[in-house]
Amino acid sequence: MIVGMGRREEKKAQTRARLLDAAAAVFARKGLVAASLDEVAEEAGLTKGAVYSNFAGKDDLIDALLKERLDKPLGEIAAKVDPDAPVPEQAAQAEALFRAVWDRERDMFLLGLEFSIHRARNPDSVPMYRGDRDLQDAMAALMEQQAKERGLTLPLPATELAAGLFALGSGLDLMALNDPERVPEGLFAKFLTLIMGQATPA
Question: Are 137 and 160 in contact (CB under 8 A)?
Fold first, then answer.
């Protein structure tokens, strides 16, 4: 009985993975608005019923896709940065790691931007995407922890700093997509170093 349940769970996980891969391909080709669940099912070689057995709808599918392809790798960046390195070096490490994700998942960043606009236009019908908020909370907690360990006072509350840095990063990402020459490599790291350099002894 347990073996059978394990196989069913494994098959369900495989189906879900196929659907996410298919969704990534379809959304990359057509964008959020034009892509349909029928196309996702066809891309995956599955029925539309398989889509609805794994996801509540298009918004739920996008939410799951962004969590897997963006939130997970972005959430791992902080743990890969050397906590004992000087702030400029930490900033450079963080930006390099972020850039690697950005280069690999460019289409997912575009989808995330589309989804943000989609929700802004339909706030009552589209569920809140919590991915950015969770990442901001994690960044705020890390900044508070490092400031405490170094005996520093942050120039603003950690939650406000994290929100501002995410907004800055999103703006630079959008600019880099449209006019990459205006966003030289290392620019975000310079801003991060400048902002964190305002921390004072506690």
Answer: no
